[in-house]
Structures are given as structure tokens and as C-alpha cells.
Amino acid sequence: MAAFDTTRTTYGSTGLIGRLGALLATAAGAFAAWNDARATRNALNGLSDRELADIGMCRGDIDSVAAGKSVF
Known about the structure:
The chain is mostly helical. The protein contains three helices and no strands. The mean pLDDT is 86.
């Protein structure tokens, strides 16, 4: 007959490896978000003032859009 131990208090907690993995995943996500904002900022800065006006933006809106904040 098999025994099942239900007295462990560590249910649901992660060990050192799990915490390091979570830290790595968080860092990778932050880097991806930074890179997306950088690419957006560079693409919008490459447009002329006329092209920005065509899409309803001005140069002052670029940082807000790159940060993910809607200006509309």
C-alpha cells in the first residue's frame, strides 16, 4: 500500500532554481519591452513632420507612444 504525505508546508513555493528562472524571465521581458520601445521611437523619429501629421501625431507624441501611453 502506498503512503501519501500531506503534511508538507512547502506546497506551492518555489526553490532557488524556480526563483532564478522567474528573475531571468522578468529580466528578459523587461529587455524585450525596452527594445520594442526603442524600435518604435527610432521608426517614428525617421518619419518627416508631414508623415507624422498624416497619422495624427507630432514630434512631442513620440515618447508617449513608444512608452505605450495612448495620446489619442
